[in-house]
């Protein structure tokens, strides 16, 4: 995949050009980011989640949404970022990937403490600095800046972190159960699709479910409710559609489940595949909205 040379070149350039102000070479120095964080401003909500993937990787997910005119509708497609913090060759990098960008953008960790993580990439257009500051166990301030020092702040809170120890343990358990439940819901939905099980598919979505796609940076509503989705799937299944979907990865954050879905099919005796970022929004145990982004070769 061509993404690998581009990514490693970016990491190499950052490694040789940035100033290593503090010896921040252990990924454990970033562990205080782990958890679910929420920021609300007006009608906008940002949800960011971090968890440990392995000894050298942390994986994160960020989704920004805006409430629509109707309380139960979402006016705009979520702005979604898939995030990683990786330890590589004795250094720490923060990787941010959005569906709009072909390659991840890499930021090097140049300063850290028990309450501060500063990542930098002076060659990027914007942002150039992403700085996480732990104000308290329940508050997180993220400063996003350009080379001119201008930018914006995100003020996150984590209610479960502000609770007592017992309440914290219970809250974390509930949060983990909710994430597992949301992911299981998405798995059931995709499995039903692969089995052409229309009734089971419809059992995983609510009456107002919307299935949307991104085309030329515009949100296209493919089906506007459950009845339209049922009709579209009936037509597809009856036409002999044989495309299968595989969930390559799943990341949960609040009410959202972010995934990379690999679609495979055969044409003229040859196998084909493509991958798409997709975001599911869950409400009351059912899928409320689905956003599909631009498909690319896997």
From TrEMBL:
Start and end residues of each DUF6265 domain: 31-145
InterPro entries (alphabetical): DUF6265, NTF2-like_dom_sf
Signal peptide feature range: 1-18
Keywords tagged on the record: Signal
Name used for this protein in its record: Nuclear transport factor 2 family protein
Organism encoding this protein: Aliikangiella coralliicola
Lineage, opening ranks: Bacteria, Pseudomonadati, Pseudomonadota, Gammaproteobacteria, Oceanospirillales
């Amino acid at each position: 995949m061509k993404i690998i040379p581009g990514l490693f070149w970016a990491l190499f350039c950052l490694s040789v050009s940035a100033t290593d102000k503090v010896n921040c070479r252990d990924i454990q120095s970033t562990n205080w980011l782990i958890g679910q964080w929420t920021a609300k401003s007006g009608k906008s909500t940002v949800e960011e989640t971090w968890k440990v993937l392995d000894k050298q990787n942390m994986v994160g997910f960020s989704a920004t949404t805006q409430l629509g005119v109707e309380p139960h509708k979402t006016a705009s497609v979520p702005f979604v970022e898939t995030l990683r913090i990786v330890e590589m060759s004795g250094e720490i990098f923060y990787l941010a990937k959005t569906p709009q960008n072909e390659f991840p953008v890499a930021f090097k960790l140049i300063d850290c403490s028990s309450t501060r993580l500063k990542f930098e990439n002076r060659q990027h257009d914007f942002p150039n600095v992403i700085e996480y500051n732990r104000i308290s166990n329940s508050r997180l301030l993220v400063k996003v800046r350009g080379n001119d020092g201008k930018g914006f702040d995100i003020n996150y809170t984590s209610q479960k972190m502000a609770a007592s120890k017992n309440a914290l343990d219970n809250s974390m358990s509930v949060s983990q159960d909710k994430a597992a439940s949301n992911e299981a819901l998405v798995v059931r939905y995709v499995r039903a699709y692969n089995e052409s099980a229309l009734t089971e598919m419809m059992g995983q979505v609510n009456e107002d479910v919307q299935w949307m796609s991104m085309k030329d940076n515009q949100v296209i509503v493919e089906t506007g409710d459950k009845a339209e989705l049922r009709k579209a799937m009936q037509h597809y299944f009856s036409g002999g559609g044989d495309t299968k979907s595989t969930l390559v990865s799943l990341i949960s954050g609040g009410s959202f489940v972010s995934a990379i879905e690999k679609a495979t099919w055969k044409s003229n005796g040859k196998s084909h595949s493509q991958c798409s970022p997709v975001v599911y929004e869950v409400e009351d145990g059912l899928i409320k909205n689905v956003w599909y982004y631009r498909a690319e070769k896997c």
